[in-house]
Every structure is written in structure tokens, then in C-alpha cells.
Write a structure and sequence with these properties.
This protein has about 650 residues and is α+β, with helices and mostly antiparallel strands. The protein is built from 10 helices and 34 strands. A 9-stranded mixed beta sheet has the order 18-17-19-20-27-26-25-22-23, sandwiched between helices. It has a 5-stranded mixed beta sheet with strand order 7-6-5-8-9, with helices on both faces. A 4-stranded antiparallel beta sheet has the order 13-12-15-16, with no helix packed on it. Helix 3 packs antiparallel against helix 4 and helix 7 crosses helix 10. The two termini are about 20 Å apart. About 0% of the residues have low confidence.
Length: about 650
């Protein structure tokens, strides 16, 4: 037997209080001679022994009463051994907290930590007496109540422990432990305990001070941490996957970077990374250079998509004892070869000095399959505009209000436009009613040339060139340019040395617009002669052609949701995973205010997913679920007890 509040046993010396009282009440008698008393002496002598025995018994009883009161306040408990979990009192009101984060998928070569945790939890539950109660909360980076409060239906808890499955979420034990303490504080029972079953990953206990504070806040509730497995297993993880361009073109080669980290204590060599689209066989592979302990390396691979639309990309390395991070997926949209429209005045001399020549040359280098058409402002028609994906407008001053309205409608519907000034007539562009939707207004012409500034490149189009070691942009100059007054919300692509933007961009309705301060000819800027220009045009096209569909990653354990056309309301929804065959039933399209709404069940398994609606062959959306990078670091830490 032990005590849940042993510090109260310090009050046991209080059993001496009755003795002190007894001694203090024993006064020294004064002899008084009284003749009649002589006849009682014989009777007193006969009763004295009996009275002394009675007083002694009363004294002992009083001392025992004080000792019993102290022991009761110290909360004695009968403890039953349950192996690695230590001891538990019986009966008990308990809450089980089970770690189901991604790291619980690591194995010892035979069974995963989660399997071992289920087994250990069932062993503890078997030691509960019939009049005990138990609840169950799953722990990721949030609390997931399963049996939310202590229940005397231990069979229900048993069945739910057997049904526990892992997730790809991160770990933070604090929310689940806090919920367990709160539930026990509200439940009946004298003996209350929280059992935590975890692999003791260091990141899981990052809230140690707050957990200790909980134990102090609820002194009547004991906390028992039950470590599962030994130290973390050696691990090699894919920590990132990226593709350039972000929206690749069907039939063209895209560059993919796969980042791999060595989380073991020894250098590794010969790690092979493969790359596949959807559920197809690997299309590319590469062997990474040697990776020192604790360091990372990257593999650069190439892939070509044969079909357009929403796709998933899957990178993989050979499996180890933690296979959850040996695969990583990315959802993306593959677009059809784009149609570009150049609106420029026809050449009166050498075509190799015109905006059309330099833009065509750059587009051909950036996208070999692109279809480029050029028209003069006077011949521009609505059919030309509707057929284009991106318009390069090089003669804005020659457009009338009607054609500006046509271009504005095109952009607001989801198109992209890049506007270059040409001649003095472009001054004031962006100030008239027909052009006020542009991201800025053109002002005066500075008298002196100015060069690009390489620092501060934060725009998606130019951010990759912030490093001067990659390419030097400081030698790009502008001899003839307009100052740009950016509108609120517009973003500069880059700046000149005098602080004036080179170009600005902003969203317009569902589309995007970009305004440059120079014409795309050598007489205006050396940009068109720089090796960076085709890359810039390609980045501009990628930026302007991004379409909805490749959705942000939902957090593991959350549902995925998106809007669809109202005609799909009531249709069945299916998910296709790049890690398993067949389709996953994901419910039906629900009615929303003005459209249909897809909301899948919670997604726990990592991978790339495409969303299909009954009656439609093409995917309507795509997303990926990945494990939190912190879960790949399997280092263990000291638990809170």
C-alpha cells in the first residue's frame, strides 16, 4: 500500500497531542484529612487498577483516532503492478492519452510504435478492477476525444483502443493531457490517473513547463507516462519537393528538386530518389551525393507530363524503419500549350529591332510548344483576345477605349496581360477611365539612365534571382523609361537604383496585370539583350497562367473542401490516391449558397489526391497531405511524470 498524498503523513506526530493533554490534566492531589473518608480507602484501592486501565485504553483510542485521520487525508491506495507502466491504484478513474502522430509509425523492424502502444494500453486496462472507470483521448498536435470522459464501460474503451489508427500529424501532447486532466477533475472517484502512451519524441514534450503546471493545478490527479519503444530509430527523410515551372506545360520537360535529409548519426551514401506522376511507374531516378550526418542534399530530376489537367507528383526513396517520410507528394496543374498574343505596331524597317522579335525569341526559349500570334492594334479583334491566355500589349497608346474595355474584360475573366509603353504617347497611361484598372500609372521620363537593383527581389517572378551568384541583374540598365506610380496593393517585380519600380503587378478580378516602365527593345533597355530576359518571360507566363485546382495542403486529420458548379450537386465524390489503387468514396456534392460544395472525410494518410465527381472524367481538384517535418526527427526526450 502507498499514499497519493504522502506529504500529509508529516502530521503523524500529532498522535502525541492526546498524551500531552492527558499529562497536563493530571493535577497533583492535595491530601485532606477527613475521618469519614477512611471507610472508602478499601473501595478506592480495589477500583484503582480498573480506572487506570480505562484511562490507558481511552488514551490509546484517542491517539489512534488522530493517526487514522492523518492517514485518511494522505489518501492510502492499494497498488497493482502493470509492468512498464508502474503501479495503479484500484479502483481508479483514469484517462488514456494515446499518441497517434506520424512518428508512431516508426518500427523496430517488426511492429510499429503504435501497435506496441495499443498492446501496452490494453495491458493496463486489463488491470483495472470492475468498478474502475476509463476514458480515451488521441493526441496529435490537438486533442481528439474518443471516449471523452471516464466511463465504467471498459469494454467500449477496449474496442476503441483496438480501432486506433495513426495519422500524419505533428505531436504536441499538451492539448490532450490538458483535456484529460479537465475531464478527471469533473468526474467522481477518489483515485484519478492520466496514462500517456507515447514514443517520447522530443518534440511531443516541447510544452513540458505547461504540463508540469497542470500537474500542480490538479494535485489530486497522478500523471503516468509510459514510453513505447527505445530511442528513436535511424531515419532518412524526404523533406521537400518542388517543380519549375510551378504549372508545367503538357509535353514539355519540367525540373523537379527533391530534398533529402540524413537524420542518422552516420554519413550515408547511394540514396536513390525516384519520381512518378500519379500512380504511374517511376519516370526518372537519380542517386544523391553522400550526405553527412544531420545534413541534407538534393536530387534534380526531370519529368514530362503527357496529359494536361490536375496531376500529382510522387517522390520516393528506399524505405527505412520510418517509411512515412520516405515518400512525398505534390499536387499541381499541367496546362495545355499556351497561346500568346502580341499586340504591337508593325515594323517599318528591320524586324529584329521590334518588340515582337524580342518577345517571340524569349517565348520560344521559355516554352517551345507555345503558340504565338502577333497583331497590330488596329487589327485586334475580340476573337484574338478570347483565344489568348496571355496578352503582351506593346502599343497601348494606339488602343481606343472600346479595345481597352475588351482587354479589361479578358483580364477580369482570368486572363493575364503584360503592358509595355511605347513612345511619348504612353505618358499618363493608367490615368484615364479606360486604363485605371492597371497596377500603376506612367509618369515622367527620368533624364538619366538607371540600373536594376539585385537586392530586395521578393516578387514571385523575380525572387529566385535575389542571389547575385545565380545571375547578375545589376548590369541591366534603362536608357529610356517612364516612372511608375504603383497603385495600392500592387507589387514591384524589381526596382531601379533610384527606387522607382521596373514593373508592378496586381490582381484584376480573376486575372493578373503587369505594367513595365520600358519598351521591350534595346533602345529602351538592355533587359531584352540579357540572358535573363527569356527566363523572365517564362516566369511571367508561369505567374500569369496559374489556374485554380492545385489546392493548398489541408492539415492532416482535416477534411478537404472546395466549390464546384451547381450542376454537380447530389453527385458522388471520389478520391484517387497516388499511393493506392482504386477510388475512395468521399460522399456527395452538397448544396451551398451559389454553388456546389465538396467536403471529404478527414484525411489522415499522406499522399497526393485527385478529386473526381460522378459523371466527369477529369479531376475537379487536387491536393496533397504530407507529414509535418518535425515528425521526421525521431530523437526521444525525458517524459513528464
Amino acid at each position: 500500500m502507498s499514499f497519493l498524498a504522502p506529504w500529509l503523513l508529516a502530521a503523524l506526530p500529532a498522535v502525541g497531542v492526546p498524551v500531552v493533554i492527558h499529562l497536563l490534566n493530571r493535577g497533583k492531589p492535595r491530601p485532606i484529612r477527613w475521618a469519614a473518608m477512611q471507610f472508602l480507602l478499601d473501595s478506592v484501592r480495589n477500583n484503582q487498577r480498573r480506572l487506570q486501565l480505562r484511562d490507558l485504553i481511552l488514551l490509546i483510542l484517542r491517539m489512534l483516532a488522530v493517526a487514522l485521520l492523518v492517514v485518511l487525508f494522505a489518501r492510502p491506495a492499494i497498488w497493482v503492478s502493470v509492468g512498464s507502466s508502474g503501479m495503479i491504484p484500484t479502483p481508479v478513474s483514469g484517462m488514456f492519452v494515446m499518441d497517434v502522430s506520424a512518428s508512431m509509425a516508426q518500427t523496430d523492424g517488426w511492429r510499429s510504435r503504435l501497435e506496441l502502444a495499443r498492446e501496452e494500453a490494453l495491458k493496463v486496462l486489463e488491470r483495472f478492477s470492475g468498478d474502475s472507470m476509463c476514458g480515451l483521448i488521441l493526441a496529435t498536435d490537438r486533442a481528439i476525444p474518443v471516449v471523452p470522459r471516464p466511463s465504467n464501460n471498459l469494454e467500449l474503451v477496449h474496442d476503441n483502443i483496438n480501432a486506433v489508427r495513426g495519422t500524419s500529424s505533428a505531436t504536441d501532447l499538451l492539448p490532450a493531457i490538458e483535456r484529460a486532466f479537465q475531464e478527471l477533475a469533473r468526474s467522481p472517484g477518489a483515485e484519478k490517473m492520466v496514462f500517456v502512451f507515447t514514443d517520447s519524441q522530443e518534440s511531443a514534450w516541447r510544452a513540458r513547463p505547461a504540463i508540469r503546471d497542470l500537474a500542480g493545478k490538479y494535485p489530486g490527479i497522478a500523471l503516468r507516462s509510459i514510453p513505447i519503444g527505445n530511442a528513436g530509430e535511424p531515419n532518412t527523410a524526404i523533406t521537400g519537393i518542388s517543380i519549375q515551372p510551378p504549372a508545367p506545360t503538357r509535353g514539355e520537360t519540367a525540373d523537379v528538386r527533391v530534398d533529402v535529409r540524413n537524420l542518422t548519426e552516420k554519413p550515408i551514401d547511394g540514396v536513390r530518389a525516384t519520381l512518378a506522376a500519379n500512380r504511374d511507374k517511376p519516370q526518372a531516378e537519380a542517386t544523391l551525393p553522400p550526405i553527412p550526418a544531420g545534413q541534407a542534399a538534393s536530387a534534380n530530376l526531370k519529368i514530362t507530363f503527357d496529359a494536361s489537367g490536375l496531376q500529382t507528383l510522387r517522390a520516393e526513396i528506399p524505405p527505412d524503419l520510418f517509411p512515412a517520410d520516405d515518400l512525398r507528394s505534390l499536387a499541381l496543374r499541367v496546362r495545355d500549350p499556351a497561346k500568346f498574343l502580341i499586340v504591337a505596331e508593325p515594323s517599318n524597317g528591320d524586324r529584329r529591332t521590334t518588340p515582337e522579335f524580342f518577345l517571340r525569341t524569349a517565348m520560344g526559349a521559355a516554352q517551345k510548344s507555345a503558340e504565338v500570334k502577333a497583331v497590330s492594334p488596329g487589327r485586334l479583334t475580340s476573337a484574338d483576345v478570347e483565344a489568348a491566355k496571355v496578352i503582351f500589349l506593346c502599343a497601348p497608346a494606339a488602343l481606343g477605349d472600346a479595345k481597352w474595355a475588351m482587354v479589361e474584360q479578358f483580364v477580369r475573366a482570368g486572363g493575364g496581360v503584360v503592358v509595355f509603353p511605347e513612345g511619348q504617347a504612353s505618358a499618363g497611361l493608367g490615368t484615364t477611365p479606360a486604363t485605371r484598372w492597371l497596377p500603376g500609372a506612367l509618369g515622367k521620363r527620368p533624364p538619366k539612365p538607371s540600373a536594376w537593383v539585385q537586392s530586395g527581389l521578393g516578387h514571385p517572378v523575380t525572387a529566385a534571382w535575389a542571389d547575385a551568384n545565380r545571375t547578375r541583374l545589376g548590369n541591366i540598365t534603362a536608357d529610356s523609361r517612364f516612372e511608375i506610380a504603383a497603385r495600392p496593393g500592387a507589387s514591384p517585380l524589381a526596382n531601379y537604383s533610384d527606387g522607382v519600380p521596373v514593373a508592378v503587378s496586381s490582381g484584376v478580378g480573376a486575372g493578373m496585370a503587369v505594367l513595365f516602365g520600358t519598351a521591350p527593345v534595346p533602345a529602351s533597355t538592355t533587359l531584352v539583350l540579357h540572358p535573363f530576359f527569356p527566363i523572365l518571360v517564362g516566369a511571367l507566363v508561369d505567374y500569369l497562367c496559374v489556374e485554380q485546382g492545385a489546392s493548398p495542403e489541408p492539415r492532416s486529420g482535416d477534411p478537404f473542401s472546395c466549390s464546384v458548379a451547381p450542376e454537380f450537386i447530389g453527385k458522388k465524390v471520389f478520391l484517387s490516391s497516388d499511393r493506392s489503387d482504386g477510388l475512395i468514396d468521399a460522399g456527395v456534392v452538397a448544396a451551398a449558397e451559389t454553388a456546389g460544395r465538396i467536403q471529404t472525410p478527414p484525411i489522415d494518410n499522406p499522399g497526393g489526391y485527385r478529386v473526381f465527381v460522378e459523371g466527369r472524367d477529369e479531376a475537379g481538384a487536387a491536393f496533397s497531405v504530407t507529414i509535418d517535418p518535425s515528425e521526421s526527427v525521431l530523437t526521444t526526450g525525458a517524459p513528464v511524470q
